[in-house]
Amino acid sequence: MRLAIVGAYGAGKTTLARALHRATGRPVAPVGPMADPEPGRPLPLARCTLAQVFQLALRRHDERARHEHALGDALVSDGSLLHEWVYLQVLARWPDPPAAPPDDPAHAACVAHLADHATAETTQVLGDRYDLVVHLAPERPLPPGAPITTAFQHALDGATRAALTRADVAVVHARGTLTARVRTVLDAVDGRLAA
User: Hey, which residues does 168 pair with through a beta bridge?
Assistant: First the structure.
């Protein structure tokens, strides 16, 4: 069973992915941090230009796809192949972006257009890549010093939900405590396996 955990920054994807690994033994597909657009030249996401964020999205998408493919039919994806494209969709349109603003509005419009198409293409193949997608809504306040605002987090969540409505894949919404979220996912997995 290939599981994907999706949601905005701070929704608890990594925490749930690790808990599901402990509960099921399914490995978590590794992916590097969203930083350092040029390997060997450290640069945090908050200081990246929109072009550098796009470069990061391409690299992370490739890295995620390769690691997920290597794990075969038993894995937990912390973010899924959809994650970076949704982030770019929102970032390119955000009036006060958490990353450095682009040099001109035409550049942002171009990135938004490319992210829209990448998101659309990815949603069409989610069911081929994952057996079950678990959506996590942001339920807790962001930690102090988070690289995004609550408004940006909720915009990410809205864009993720919108993409999922167009995807041909089983989606379950997990809420509450970590224990409740794990139980929701395990029940959904059992239901899918029994069908």
Answer: none
CB 81 within 8 A of CB 61: yes
- Please state the pTM of the whole predicted model: 0.91
83 and 42 Cβ atoms separated by less than 8 Å:
no
With residue 75 as reference, give the H or E element that holds it. strand 75-78
Structure tokens at 106: 């035409």
- Report the C-alpha gap between 107 and 67 in whole angstroms: 31
Q: Tell me the pLDDT tens digit for each residue of 134-165.
A: 999 999 999 898 888 999 999 999 999 999 99
- At 140, the amino acid letter reads R
The backbone torsions φ and ψ at residue 132, rounded to the nearest 5 degrees and listed phi first, read -150, 135
Name the amino acid, one letter, at 116. Answer: D
Reading phi first (left if > 0) and then psi (alpha if -120 to 50, else beta), residue 25 is in left
Residues 6 or more apart whose Cβ sits within 8 Å of residue 59: 37
